[in-house]
Structures are given as C-alpha cells and as structure tokens.
Description:
428 residues, 8-stranded mixed beta sheet, 4-stranded antiparallel beta sheet
Amino acid sequence: xxxxxxxxxxxxxxxxxxxxxxxxxxxxxxxxxxxxxxxxxxxxxxxxxxxxxxxxxxxxxxxxxxxxxxxxxxxxxxxxxxxxxxxxxxxxxxxxxxxxxxxxxxxxxxxxxxxxxxxxxxxxxxxxxxxxxxxxxxxxxxxxxxxxxxxxxxxxxxxxxxxxxxxxxxxxxxxxxxxxxxxxxxxxxxxxxxxxxxxxxxxxxxxxxxxxxxxxxxxxxxxxxxxxxxxxxxxxxxxxxxxxxxxxxxxxxxxxxxxxxxxxxxxxxxxxxxxxxxxxxxxxxxxxxxxxxxxxxxxxxxxxxxxxxxxxxxxxxxxxxxxxxxxxxxxxxxxxxxxxxxxxxxxxxxxxxxxxxxxxxxxxxxxxxxxxxxxxxxxxxxxxxxxxxxxxxxxxxxxxxxxxxxxxxxxxxxxxxxxxxxxxxxxx
Amino acid sequence: xxxxxxxxxxxxxxxxxxxxxxxxxxxxxxxxxxxxxxxxxxxxxxxxxxxxxxxxxxxxxxxxxxxxxxxxxxxxxxxxxxxxxxxxxxxxxxxxxxxxxxxxxxxxxxxxxxxxxxxxxxxxxxxxxxxxxxxxxxxxxxxxxxxxxxxxxxxxxxxxxxxxxxxxxxxxxxxxxxxxxxxxxxxxxxxxxxxxxxxxxxxxxxxxxxxxxxxxxxxxxxxxxxxxxxxxxxxxxxxxxxxxxxxxxxxxxxxxxxxxxxxxxxxxxxxxxxxxxxxxxxxxxxxxxxxxxxxxxxxxxxxxxxxxxxxxxxxxxxxxxxxxxxxxxxxxxxxxxxxxxxxxxxxxxxxxxxxxxxxxxxxxxxxxxxxxxxxxxxxxxxxxxxxxxxxxxxxxxxxxxxxxxxxxxxxxxxxxxxxxxxxxxxxx
Amino acid sequence: xxxxxxxxxxxxxxxxxxxxxxxxxxxxxxxxxxxxxxxxxxxxxxxxxxxxxxxxxxxxxxxxxxxxxxxxxxxxxxxxxxxxxxxxxxxxxxxxxxxxxxxxxxxxxxxxxxxxxxxxxxxxxxxxxxxxxxxxxxxxxxxxxxxxxxxxxxxxxxxxxxxxxxxxxxxxxxxxxxxxxxxxxxxxxxxxxxxxxxxxxxxxxxxxxxxxxxxxxxxxxxxxxxxxxxxxxxxxxxxxxxxxxxxxxxxxxxxxxxxxxxxxxxxxxxxxxxxxxxxxxxxxxxxxxxxxxxxxxxxxxxxxxxxxxxxxxxxxxxxxxxxxxxxxxxxxxxxxxxxxxxxxxxxxxxxxxxxxxxxxxxxxxxxxxxxxxxxxxxxxxxxxxxxxxxxxxxxxxxxxxxxxxxxxxxxxxxxxxxxxxxxxxxxx
Lengths: 428, 428, 428
C-alpha cells in the first residue's frame, strides 16, 4: 500500500465520527490516530482541560454530549436523523423534546440556500441554542403539520481534549506541525489534516538523523489552539522556529498557502521553495487566514506559522457542507501534500549556510561533475553544481540558494552534498 | 446648503477677480476668504513683503497694477477687452498706448494654436514685456489695418501679499495645508484650492479635540511659497511633519496625487489610504511636480508635501485656458475632495501605534463584536475587528494597519475605538 | 574612417587566426591588437604562465600546437581541411594519422544536428581525445569506405598567454574591462570583444583628465581569467570597483546584460543608465552567466562585474558555429557598443554626489536656464535643470539622479556642469 492510500484510509476511518470542540468524538479520533502510529514507537499524549478553566481571554466551555437527534412528522416518519449524517444537528445544540408546528420548526432549521442540495455545517459553541441542518430542497418540501424536534444532548462539566507529541532531535529547536480534530463528518476539512499529520509522525520517526525536534499537536480549532498555547507558552516561544498548520490537504486541486503576517519568515521561504514546480499554487496573504495560524501568529505570541492547503478552506463549494465527503479527497491528493511537507522537512533539516572553499570556480570536470567536452546545447545537471557554488558565499543558506535557482531545496541537496563530499563547499 | 455647494459658491465669488503674483486681486481674494470664515472665529493673517526684498535666490518683484487693457481697430471696435476676460492680457504686462499695423500687432498676441477656440493664460513675471491673449480663431480673423494696443498698467514699488493661519492643537507638531492665489479667472486652477482650503479651516476649527496644530497658507505660487518658506523656515522645519498642497480640486474627474521625491513619507502613506475605494486614482512621481510641492520638498527644505488634485494640473485641455471656467467645477467635485482631505486629517489625528492587550485572539462573541453562530458565507464587519487585532503588534500604526486591510483609516477608526473601549488594544 | 569601421576592421584581422586557450594563435592575436594601438602610446603587457602551474583549483594545461588537420577518402579527396576552416578540428585534439572505415570515422565526428548546415565549435581541453567537426549534412553524405584521419598537433610543455594594461588616473581605484582571446574563427564570439576593447584603450588613452585608473585584460576564457585573478588577486581586490566583460558586441541586435549576483552593484546601476533609450535591452540574471563574470563575481573574489553583449552568448543560432562569421557583425553594431561603453566610462568618471547650494528652487530664468515667459505646452530642456536640482540632496550621485530622471548620465552631465558653473550645485 502506498503512502497516499495509507493517509486516505486513516482519513476514511476518522470520517464517520461526530466531533466537536469537546467530547467523545475528539477522544475517539485521537485514539484511532495513536493506534495508526503504534508501529512508530511514538504516541500522542492526551491532555484534558476541565470546563471552566481560563485560557487567556477565554473560558473552556462545557463538554458537549450528543446521543441522538432527529425530526419526525406526525406520522412518525423521521425527516432527518443524526444517525444518517452528524451534520444534521447544530454543533453544541442544547437538548429538546418538543412537538411544534411547521412555522416554529423552520425557526430551528439551517440551510445553505445558494447550494440547495447540501446539508451545511453549523455550530453555536458560545451561545446556547438548538438547531437542525438540512438541505434547502428538503426544507422547502416540508408541509404544514406537526413535527417532533428531538435532541438528546447534554452540556456537562467535562473537559476539552488535545494531544501532542515531541520527537526529540539533536537540537532543542522545534518544527511545529498542527491540525485540528473538532469537525464532524467532513473529509477534506478536517479529517485530512490529522490523517496527514499521523503520516508525518511516521516520516519523522523514521528519520535516521534528526537535527531538529518536532512537535505535533492536534487540538480543537481556535479554543483548542488558544488552550494549547496558554498551557505551553514558554516552551513554544523558546523552541519553535517554524510552524505549519495542515488543513484541507486531501483533495486534488492546486496547492494554497496562507502566509504569515509579513510573509517574510522561514516558514514562508521554505514552503515557497517546496512548492516550486507545483503549478497554480495560490499564496494568500494573512488577511485570508482562518485556522490556527490566527493564534500562533497573533501579536504577543508571534510564532511564525503558515497554513498549508490544497483547496483553501472557505474557497470551494464543498467546504462546510455534506459534499465535503470521501469522494472529495483521494490518495493522489494526499500523496502530493505529503511530498510537499516532507520536502519542507528535508529543506529545514539541511538548511545550513554554505561557503565555497576555493577561489574562482573549481574544475568540475576532473571530479566527474561536468562533461569533459564542450559543445553548445549539451548540458547535464552540472548547472546545479555551478549555481550552488556561485551562491555559496557564506551568507546564503540552502533555501536561499534553492529559491534563487528556482528548484526545491530537497532536490538541490543532492548537489550540495556531492560538493561537500568533494570538499568544494563547507556548511555551518 | 451642503458643504460641496458651499465650496463651489466661494469658488464662484473668487472666479471673476484678476489675480497675479502681486497686487489688488490677491488682497481682494484673501479678504473674501476671510469674510467666508468669519463664523469660525479664525482669520488668516495677511502679510506684505516689499518689492525688492530678497527671499533665498529670488527678489520680490515690483507690484503689478492693472486697470484696463484692450485692442481696438481703426473703427474703434474693441477686438478684445480685459473687462470681458482678464486672461486677455499677459500677466505683468507693461503699459502701452500705441497704434500699429496688423503685422506688428501679431507680435504681441498669444494664442493656443492646438485649441483654436480658447484664450490661453500667459505670464511674464521676470522679463518685462506687454502682450495680449486671444483665441487662435480670433487672431486668424484679424484683417490688415491699424490697431490700437492699450494697456493701462504700472509696475510699482509695492509688495507681495500672502496669508497664513495657525490653529493650535494639543501638540505643536503641525499639518500644513497650502494653496495659491495668483491665478486670474480660472476655476479649477486655481480658485478651487483656496475655496477648499477655506472649508478645511472651518472643519479644523470645529474639531472638538485637536491633537495636532494646523497651518493654512495661501500664497502666490512659486515666488510666494519661496517667500513664505524664507520668512518661516525655522518654524516650518521644526513643526511641520506633513504638507498637502491643494490644486485643481473642484472638477469631477478621478483623483491625482503628486508624490514626494521618494514617495515614502507620512504624506504619501496617508493620502494613499484616504483614496482607497476611489477608482482610477493616478499617482504621479515627483518628476511630474509643478506646484508649491516643488519648494517644500526641495533639498535643504525637505518638508514632506504631496500635491492633491482631481484632474492633475497640466494634463487636461481646459488647463490654463478660458475653458477652465465655473462649468468645469461642481459641488460634487468639491465634496469628494473635501471628504478625502477630512479623511486625511482624521487618519493623522488618530495615527497611534496599537498593541493588542491579550494573548491569542480575544473572544469577540461574548462582547457582541462577532456573531454567535458559525456558518459559512455569513460574516458581518467582524473581520475589521479581527484584522485590527491581528496587526496591533505595537509596531504598526493606524495607517499601516488600514493600508494592510485596504480600507480608509477614517473608517477603520470606528473598530479601533471600539476595541480600545473594550480594553483589547492600547494605543501609544 | 569612423570608429565603428575601425573596430570592425580589427575584428576582421583577428577573425582568420586559429586560437585556443594556449598557443601561437593567442600570441598572434595579442600582437595584432598591440600593433593596432601603437598610436596611443600604450601597449598590453604579455604574460606567460608555464604549463603545470597551479592557479587556484586548476593546473595550467599543456600548450596546444596545431599545424594541419584533414580527413581524406580513399581517392585522396580531402573531405574537410583545417586550412579552410579552423573549426573543423576539435580544440586540443591529440595527433592522429590513421586509416579507418566509415563506422570508426563517425565516432570522431561532431555535428550540430539541429542546424544541419553549420560546422559546430567543439573543444576538449581537459580530456585528451581527437575529433573533427563538420556539418550534419556533410556527415550524412559520407559513404562507406576507407578514410584517412590526419591531425598534426602536439601538446607540449609550453605556457598560457594573457595580456594586461593599466592606464593610471588620478585615483588608484580601477575600472576593469576584460574580454577573451581563445576562440578560433568566430566573429561575434569572440573576435568582437577584443576588437572593442582595443578601441576603448584608445578612448581612455585620449581622455584629457582621468579620475580613475583603467585595467584592460585579455585572457583565454575561464582558465585564463582564473590564472589572471590568481596572479593579481591583491591588486584586483584592493583597486577594482567596477568590472565589465565584453562578449558578442559586434552584431546588430538589441543589447543584453548579465547582471551581478545580487544585481545591486555600481556596475548594474551604470550599465542600466547607459542603456536608457536603447530599446529591447534584456537584463539576464546571474543564473544566465557564462563568461568571465563567473570568475570575478565568484564567492571569495567578489569583484563586481557585469557582462555586456548585443546578442547574448548562447542565445542566437550562429553562436559557436561557422555561421558566426564576419557577416554577422557590422560597423554599426560595434559603434553602438562603443557608445554604450564610453557612456559608462563618462558616467563613472563624473559620478559625484551633488548638493544644491540654494534653498528652494533657484531662479533659472535670470541665468538664461529657463524661458522667461510662461505658457502651457512650451518647455525646453529646462526640466533637466529642475530635476537635477530637485534630487541634488547630497545623498544621490549623478547616476542615481540620471536613473530617476531616466536619461543617460552622460547626457545629464551637461546640465550638471552648467549648474555647477552657476554655483547652484556643488559636488563631492
């Protein structure tokens, strides 16, 4: 089984679970992910923060327990049922068990009128209410009559769950990779991010030599990131030099990046490098942020983090609807994202500054690094050697040079290492 | 009466007066302007600099007195008459009272051959001569015969007149607003600038709280600006941090700005901000300068000043001709310019640096600053709150943040103040 | 005879000589060039570095002696003969005197299949072999049969030859101008560069006043530049502040520049200035380098050097083939290159910082530097005076100002000097 299929299959296991920012769904999700990486010898540590705890400007909300939810008509036909699709209930709905007329029912129904076939994803975490989601077409087909609104839910004094794992490297400096585990049954947004993150744990675990430490975090979006930062601020600020948030990484469309506020950090440099040669990539300014990069890049925190997507969240019609299902993601889509992220890791791990050890150009041909005969139009890869040497001035690092040459650093690395073996450059 | 009409009406009162760089017309213009702002409690102070005074590299010229000017034919028909249009006489013409033939007459006639219907505006301040201006068509219709050239003018030992007004604020730092009062009967260039300046005196006078002081200056173009700077150099260099020259501000066309030499000052930043959302604005480099921004930005003076126009001087066919009349300006045209300039003032007055007081994003929904329910496609103005907070890092000021978000600072200010009231940002 | 013709004629004298990176052809080339500049009183000094000498990472190769080379068929018909075109033998071919069959012959034949009519230019300096070059069409017309491969050559313990000339100026700071003398009979690449360089020696020799010193270097490409730098490193690093490599400077096409690594040196600034008004100039990044700018800009050397071309080497079909003959260059082509380079020299010689001596604009009209009467649409060259003054702030130098105004510095100089004479600016 190839890696793309592996990620796809994990995504598929996570898909059916009803998640919210707290509760059993989050815990079950994290359990499955840990199960999937048992072979690596590494496990995410699960943390619980009690309801009512203060995290910066916020309070951890009550934990949401959801058991059953449906609407039935006066003939006991179930119009919608949470069992069929967990998007049918507004996230954090309070319990209800009432018969009402058609008009009152409509006050509790949410639809996406511009996409009349889909069930929208709606939540109300911090304002107590109950509600049902259905397609606009279904709503329009409802006749007058009596309806039974039923939600068996509870808001209890529980806790918010998150998970992290630090895999140590030679240096205490950390690369942070995050995604979030609070969305119910939507595939790209957001079963894809956690599934890719699990595979990246496998990749990092298998590295023979790790220069940097790696911190993996899975958290409920927003409140979870705030809670995590609140509980780990000193460590994060001291160690993390580059953060990557994964969201919507499983579809087949072109890549998207949400840049840091000034678009000038190592994260911005390395992701642009890793995406060289991937056509139609879109770089969105920080004005278009929307996921946990909001918290990490916030003033006072200032941990540089880009968000990495294929289709950017919020821009595709399937987003936050029942159409974001397992048909919208694919093994190929996952594989591309995996390649980009592992190229990011390779680039960062090897991002030394390089300095040429000889004056003027060295003689490559006697080292077998260029062809011995000169005729126009006949060049091999020798230009990569030449370019690397030309920019190895002790100020440029691998990513600088790769960006100048316009090739991925992970690819240029081969040439850098060869030149280092030949003693023609030194790194520091 | 709305403000645009108010400015238009003042422009209309100034239009008929024959102005030049010295003389009665300038004084009458300043008198009318002072009359128009009597209600504000503020008055421009009138200054006179005697002819022959040295101002930097220049000498204040003699004062021009013009009483009458015409050309009549041998049948005593007046071909042109200064009474009908004061553009008919070349500015600073010396007196003449001579009969001549058609050929000699032509030597003293100025036309705009590429616009055969208009009377051009011509001056000769520093080289004594006399001359008449008429349309190319009129010139071509003149028959051979005798003509009487008559100009009743004098160049006397008088003075050059300018006016200024400083309205004090909490700080001694000043915002400088200038325009010029040396052009005869042309509406946009330049009765419009002084008329708008008068209305801005009313606006500044009415501000409940003024952080900055405001310096308003009306002067003859070039020589007047040089004289003014020469007589006020220390004060200007010590206090003025942003200058705005008003020229051609009454027509209905898109806005234009002449940038400072390096286009990097607070003037450039704030005018670009105030013009966000105004379509087709043209930014001209300093190479295209032509009004008093030339003197203020000169090496050794280096007071940053942009020029603000609707149609840029020199670029429209009516410019410096009899077609630049009251039909070319409008209350709507003035109103737009007034809005832009008052937005500039509001932006500068409130241009503090802002710093978020909380770590990570604050919870806006519990403060009523964002909607409590989350569904895609349903956003209010909450993004302005979020963006403002995201860039309130203690380094960006209001105009920086507004330029990043791409909205006028005067509009963003509402959100900044609300966040400040909530204690979520502090300014300094 | 005009200068363009003069350069063309010298190019024409150099064209027939068979050059390589060592040997008699280089010496004969340098002898002719010295003969051509006898009138200047300056002569290039000829240097020899023995075979086997170490120059940085390289070893000076054996000297190549080539006397005769041909292929004949079994009827003693000479298929190709070195006498007819010295491109027919692969550069640095070892001797051979063998009869072989058609199949073996083909192993030693080099063609340019995508240009079937031309003889390609092929060399093998550092890997011993022998070979013949011919057109693809000729190769395809060869029948089976016996062939006689004959090359009368030697690789001897000799030396590599280069030449230099320093013409002293008031300052010890040097402008370096280089080209190379290792290519056999190709006109644009590279008889043109040495021919233009000789004319620039004449120009510099004739300057009445020289602020800077000028270093002219002719060397075999690559190994020669490395050898030269190796033997003159301290002097070069101490004195040279701007380098210009001449290559392919005789054709009629638009100009090309290969920028320095960061495209930010005085060389980049001045060449861009000198090329203002020359349409369709192409600026190539350092990634497109290919001549001796590779060695001078290398890390550790870091002497800023741009390469100047008309058609850039490597981009035109005639490049490195027998079609790069005297028909591809022209007196007009040379003249344009000469004008650009002499403008570069004038710009650098006069590249002082300027500071206005008066506050505000000076009165140009009383100095006869602007017209005395003001009417729209009637301007002379006075804007050059005004622009020069406006940017003479003591920070900008002549080239800065000229680049801002977008005219060649050599042209702006007239205005700068006039203003200096009038005491309106001072330079330092």
